[in-house]
Amino acid sequence: MAQGDQIYVMRDLAGMPGLYQHHGIDCGDRTVIHYSKAKAEAEVSRTSFDAFSWGNPVTTVTQPEVYAPTVVIDRAKSRLGERQYDLFLNNCEHFATWCTTGRTESRQLATFGLRLDQLNLPELRRLAEADRHSHSPEAARANFQKALGDIATAYATTRTDQQAAQKDLDDWHRVAQKALTLSREDLAREALHRKVAAQKRVEQLTAQLSDLVELELNLQRNRAFTERRLGLE
C-alpha cells in the first residue's frame, strides 16, 4: 500500500461478519480518507489507519487507469466533510473509485446481493415491533436507516431471483409443449418436472417478497412512532 492507493477492509452487514468491502484512500501517512460511520450520519473523514481497518487485513484495489497519487489525495480532500452517503448512489466505494479514476462506480454493489436468509431477522423484527432499546435520537435514527437499507437490498436481490425463476418456469413450459408436439413424452415429463420445481421456487420467492414488504411497512410505522417519542420530528 502506498499514498493514493484505493484500499478496502471487510466489514459486517446485518449481523453477518465480513460481508462487504469498506473502501477508502490511503494518504500514505497512516491515515485514510473514507466515508466514516463513526457518527450518526456518515461523513467523509480523515481517520487513523487503525480506525479504518478495525484490526482487520487491508487490501489494495487494482484499477486499470488511475490518477497520480497527489491528484487522488487532492480529490479525496476536496470532499472532506461531505454527508451525502447513499448505499446505491454514493457509498464508500463510489467515493474511493471517483477519487482514483474519476468514475463513480461500485463493483461490489453490481455483484453483491443480500438475500433474505442473510438478514438478521430477529433484530429487524425487534425494530419493526418497537425500538425500546434506543434511548437516544441518534441511535434510533441510525438503527432504522440501517434496517431499511438492508431490507431494500434484500428486496432487490430477491426480486431478481424471482424474475429468473419465472423465466425458468416459462422456458420449461415451452419445452414441455414442444416435446409433446414431437411425441417425446420422456422429454416432456422431464420438462414438466423442472417446471414444477421452478413454480415452487417462484412461489417461495414471492412469499419472501411479501414478507419483506410487510417488514418494511412495520419498520416505517414504528420509525414514525419512535421519532414522535424521541422528538425527532
Protein traits:
233 residues, alpha+beta, endopeptidase fold (from Nostoc punctiforme), 5-stranded antiparallel beta sheet
Break the fold down into its secondary structure elements and pairings.
Layout: E1 6-13, E2 16-26, E3 31-36, E4 43-48, H1 49-53, E5 58-60, H2 69-77, H3 92-101, H4 107-111, H5 121-129, H6 137-181, H7 185-230
Antiparallel strand pairs: 1-2, 1-5, 2-3, 3-4
Helix pairs in contact: 2-3, 5-7, 6-7
Give the tally of β-strands.
5
Structurally, the number of domains stands at 2
Cα separation of the termini = 45 Å
SS element count, helices? 7
- Structural class comes to alpha+beta
Tell me the overall shape: flat
Segments where pLDDT lies below 50 for 5+ residues?
Answer: none
Mean pLDDT: 80
Which sheet architecture does the biggest sheet show? 5 strands, antiparallel
Q: What is the ordering of alpha helices and beta strands?
A: EEEEHEHHHHHH
Helix proportion of residues, in percent?
Answer: 55-70%
Taken as a percent bin, the fraction of beta residues is: 5-15%
CA gyration radius, whole angstroms: 23 Å
Which strand order does the major sheet show? 4-3-2-1-5
What would you note in describing this structure?
This protein has 233 residues and is of the alpha+beta class. The protein folds into two domains: 107 residues, Alpha-Beta Complex (endopeptidase fold (from Nostoc punctiforme)), CATH 3.90.1720.10; 113 residues. It is 55% helix and 15% strand. The protein has seven helices and five strands. A five-stranded antiparallel sheet has the order 4-3-2-1-5. Helix 2 packs across helix 3. The mean pLDDT is 80.
